[in-house]
Structures are given as structure tokens and as C-alpha cells.
TrEMBL record:
Has a glutathione-disulfide oxidoreductase activity in the presence of NADPH and glutathione reductase. Reduces low molecular weight disulfides and proteins. It comes from Penaeus monodon (Giant tiger prawn). GO terms for molecular function: prostaglandin-E synthase activity. Keywords: Lipid metabolism. GO terms for biological process: prostaglandin biosynthetic process. This is Prostaglandin E synthase 2. Belongs to the GST superfamily. The keyword Oxidoreductase does not apply.
Length: 338
């Protein structure tokens, strides 16, 4: 599949040959909010995640990195001032800055689904390096229905297996891709109207965000209070707009339960521990990741009480925290060293 995209898609849509991901200058140095280290990561990649701790898309990327046991640093971005992203034209989090081993080249990987796809492709594809793989995800510019210019990353849900067979059925690959897209197109949009349902719930959510993100440690007091109060009020109104835009029921909790039950019904039909079988696949990691964003909010406690999500969620929490996929990362790193 990689060779097909390299020969067909890349020349038409990506004449820059991946240069949009290559930083011209090294980014400034920031003190990490957290440093994640596991002995099994021997890839030599120096990964830095720029994020909001409780952003669903950021949580999705963290779930992936943690499951596979990657070493990475976390830069917590102030959601109001965004001081930590002023150095780059692309300021939408999450994004990864990846310093390549034995090289002075630094990549900036953008969009949570593209990040997951290219990093998974890096693990699965034993012959291509990360710099080559990003060329399979060209960025194109287009004008939307409102006349605004937009950027779209092509192939962001596709994995590039190279010349080696993936060891999976076509149906399994397509199904995984379908659920990953469902997370981005459906599930994630029900979160904000639920956690910001009332002014009180909105403030409670931001208190959870502050605790989960250790804001007291990383931001000045005035910055933290600004985000708490201004952010919670703003998101209450934004949540109402998102409810209308995505046609969510007036009883927003019912929509949340419905979406979670769609996932659980498919999981039950599959008849396995995870959607990926005995081990999670990228659809499991995506659903789990976005749900962890609201884990400490009243809305998710209601979901746990009104659906049967808890067993799967707790199993996912365990396998992610224990770096269940780290063996693959170690094997890929060993290949690079040989």
C-alpha cells in the first residue's frame, strides 16, 4: 500500500515531498510538564507532544504513545495565551515534534489521526523511516462551502504497510478505519455539550482539567484562574452551539449514552475482549483516548452508571498503563540499531 501511495498519490497531491512536516529551524526549548520514559523504546526518536491535558484528540495521541511504550516529553499549552505554540504557524494541538535519530532533522506531525496512522505505520513498516512515511500524508488546501480556506491531510486514517503484508484481513483493516473515523466524526462531538451542559458542570469540568493537567505547577496563578473562569464560561456557550451544529438531542446525556451503546453493541457482536481481539487495535485506543478526556467529569460518571462501558474501559486503562504494545516498539527499535 505504501508503494501505491508513493507512486500515485504523492506526485499529484504532494509536490513538496513531505516538506510541510519538516521544520526549517529547531523549535525553542520548553520545560516539559511531564517526561515519560520506558526501557522498551529503543527507536531513538525524540518525541515532544504539545497538548492540552484534557483535549480529546490529545488524549487519543497519549493513549497511543502510552500503549506502545514510546518515550516522550509533554509540553502543556496554555489554552488562553497559547504561549507555547507561538513559534509555529501550525498551532492546533495536538502536534508532535520528532527529532530523528542520527540526524539534525526535526519533523512536526499534525492532526491526531494522522499522528496515530504514521506512527503505527512506522511500527508496522520495517523498511521505511518516519521521514519517508510522512510523504504518504500530503496536505492539500481547499475552499469550503463558506468560502474559507481549509487544510486537509489526505490518507490520515490509512496505514502504510510497505512491501510486507499486514498480517490482517482486509475486512479487519477497513473496520478499524471506520471506527476511527466514527470517533472523530461522531463520538467526540457529543462530549462538549455534555461536560459543559450547565455553568456549574462547565466549571466542575475545568476544575477537573486543572487537576488532571497540574495547572498549579505549570501556569502562573493568574493564568490558571483566567482559564478556569473565562474558559468555563466560554465553553458553556460553545457547548450550546456545538449541540445545535451536530444535531444532538435536547437531552444531551441521552445522545452520549446512545453513542457509547453503539460502540458496545459492535463490541458485543465482535465477541472479543477488545475490538482488536485479544489486544486493542487503533479503534479501541481512539475510543478510550477521547473518553479519558472527560473521565473526571459528572457526564462520564453518568455514562458509567447508565451504560456497560466500565468493564471495557477499565481493561483498556490497564493495558494502556502497562504499555501492552511495547514489544512492537522494542522490535522496531532493535531493527533500526542493527
Amino acid at each position: 500500500m505504501y508503494e501505491i501511495y508513493k507512486k500515485i498519490v504523492t506526485p499529484l497531491a504532494n509536490p513538496s515531498e513531505g516538506s510541510e512536516y519538516l521544520l526549517k529551524e529547531k523549535p525553542p526549548t520548553f520545560k516539559p510538564a511531564r517526561t515519560i520514559r520506558t526501557p522498551t523504546d529503543t527507536t531513538g526518536l525524540k518525541i515532544t507532544l504539545f497538548q492540552y491535558q484534557t483535549c480529546p484528540f490529545c488524549c487519543k495521541v497519549r493513549a497511543f504513545l502510552d500503549y506502545y511504550g514510546f518515550n516522550y516529553d509533554v509540553i502543556e499549552v496554555n489554552s488562553v495565551t497559547r504561549a507555547q505554540t507561538r513559534w509555529t504557524d501550525y498551532r492546533k494541538v495536538p502536534f508532535l515534534v520528532v527529532a530523528l535519530p542520527n540526524s539534525d532533522k526535526v519533523l512536526q506531525l499534525k492532526d491526531s489521526s494522522m499522528i496515530v496512522s504514521v506512527m503505527q505505520s512506522f511500527l508496522d513498516n520495517k523498511t521505511e523511516n518516519l521521514e519517508d512515511l510522512v510523504k504518504c500524508y500530503p496536505t492539500i488546501e481547499f475552499t469550503d462551502d463558506e468560502g474559507e480556506k481549509r487544510l486537509e491531510i489526505m490518507n490520515r486514517y490509512f496505514l502504510m504497510y510497505g512491501k510486507h503484508p499486514p498480517g490482517r484481513s482486509k475486512d479487519d483493516i477497513v473496520d478499524e478505519r471506520k471506527w476511527r473515523k466514527w470517533v472523530d466524526d461522531v463520538l467526540v462531538h457529543v462530549l462538549s455539550p455534555n461536560v459543559y451542559r450547565t455553568p456549574q458542570e462547565s466549571f466542575q469540568a475545568f476544575q477537573w482539567f486543572s487537576k488532571a493537567g497540574s495547572w498549579e505547577e505549570h501556569f502562573e496563578t493568574w493564568e490558571r484562574l483566567l482559564v478556569l473562569y473565562v474558559g468555563s464560561i466560554a465553553m458553556f456557550f460553545i457547548g450550546k452551539n456545538l449541540k445545535r451544529r451536530h444535531q444532538i438531542k435536547d437531552d444531551v446525556r441521552a445522545s452520549f449514552y446512545d453513542d457509547v451503546n453503539v460502540w458496545l453493541k459492535a463490541l458485543k457482536k465482535k465477541g472479543t475482549k477488545f475490538m482488536g481481539g485479544d489486544e486493542p487495535n487503533l479503534s479501541d485506543l481512539s475510543v478510550f483516548g477521547v473518553l479519558t478526556a472527560v473521565e473526571g467529569c459528572d457526564a462520564f460518571q453518568d455514562v458509567k452508571s447508565n451504560t456497560k462501558i466500565t468493564p471495557w474501559f477499565e481493561q483498556m486503562k490497564e493495558v494502556v498503563s502497562q504499555h501492552g504494545g511495547a514489544k512492537l516498539t522494542m522490535e522496531r527499535g532493535n531493527l533500526l540499531q542493527n
